[in-house]
Amino acid sequence: MGKTTRAGRVAGFYALRLPPAHGMPERPLDTTIYARKIIYFSMLSHNLHDFSMKILALRACLTYIAGMTKLDQLKRHLKPGQAYRRADLARWSTAVDRHLKQLVESGTLRKLSGGLYVVPKETVFGPAPASDKDVVCAFLKDDPFLLASPNAYNSLGVGTTQLYDKTVVYNHKRHGEFQLGNRKYTFRVKLRFPKSLTPEFLLVDLVNNVDQLAEAKEEVLERVQKRAASTDRRRLRRAVREYGNERTKKFFNRALGANELHAG
C-alpha cells in the first residue's frame, strides 16, 4: 500500500462519512461542528495557559512574602526622621528587643534614651536629627505640650539679646531635665499653656522667669511695662490670668492699672 500524502489525509478527513442509520442513506459529515469544536478547544487552551501563568505569578509573590523576615516587615513601618517608643514598635514585632538591637547595630535606628528611638533621615549633609516636636511627642506619648525657649523673648523688643542652648517643654506630667539623644530638654509641669507661642504668653512667661535671665532684671521689667502698654490689653489680661504666677499677676496689675486685670 502506498504512502498517503498530507493533502490526501486532509481530503480524506473532509470526505468522512457518518455510518448510515438503519434504513437511511449514507450522508456526509457536517464539518461545521468540527470547526467549532476546534476553535472552542483552541480558545480553552489559550485561557488555561493564561490562567496558569497568573497562578505561577501569584505563587512567586506568595513565596516572596513568606520569605520576608519579621525584621523586614518591621522595617517597612519605619519612617525617616520619625521618633518611636519601644511600645510603638512592639505592635509590629513579636521579638521587639532582639529586633531593636539588630536595627540599632545596623544603623537603621538610633537610640535617644531608654525606650526611645529615632530613624535617621539622610540629607545631602548627612543624617539629620529628628525634630524637637517629633522627639518630645514620642517621649510624652502624644500628651499635649508646648515647646519654648528663652531665645523667643528676644522677639519682644524688651532688651533681651542673649542666646540660650535651652529648650523648655511645658507639659502636664513630666518635670526635670532629660537628655534625649544629643539634646537636653527642660520639662516643666504647667497646668495651662497655649497651643502655640503668642506675644502675650511670651511677655507673661518672661516675667515668670525673669530671675533666670542674664540681663539686668530691673531694666528688662521696665521695658516689659512699656511693651505692655502697646499690647492688646484684653489678650494680655487673659494671658496673665491663665499663665502668670502670683508675682507676675501683681506686676501686670501695676503695669496695666489697679483692678484692670479683673475687668475683662
Structural description of this entry:
The protein has 264 residues and is of the alpha+beta class. The protein has three domains: 28-67; 70-133, Arc Repressor Mutant, subunit A (Orthogonal Bundle); 143-262, no CATH class. Helices cover 46% and strands 14% of the residues. The protein has a four-stranded mixed sheet, with helices on one face. Strand 2 (110-113) and strand 3 form a beta hairpin. Helix 7 packs across helix 9 (233-243) and helix 9 packs antiparallel against helix 10 (246-256). It starts with 5 loop residues before the first helix and ends in an 8-residue tail after the last helix. Mean pLDDT is 81; it is low at 13-18.
List keywords for this structure.
Arc Repressor Mutant, subunit A; 46% helix; single chain; 3 domains; 4-stranded mixed beta sheet; 264 residues; alpha+beta
For the termini, the CA-CA separation is 123 Å
Shape: elongated
The biggest sheet, with number of strands, parallel, antiparallel or mixed sense and barrel status, is: 4 strands, mixed
Quaternary class: single chain
Low-confidence regions: 13-18
Strand residues, percent: 5-15%
Order of helices and strands: HHHEHHEEEEHEEEEHHHH
- When the domains are counted, the total is 3
Overall helicity: 40-55%
By DSSP (H or I, 4+ residues per run), the number of helices equals: 10
Strand order, biggest sheet? 6-7-9-8
Structural class designation: alpha+beta
- Rg computed from alpha carbons, rounded to a whole number of angstroms: 40 Å
**Beta strands, count:** 9
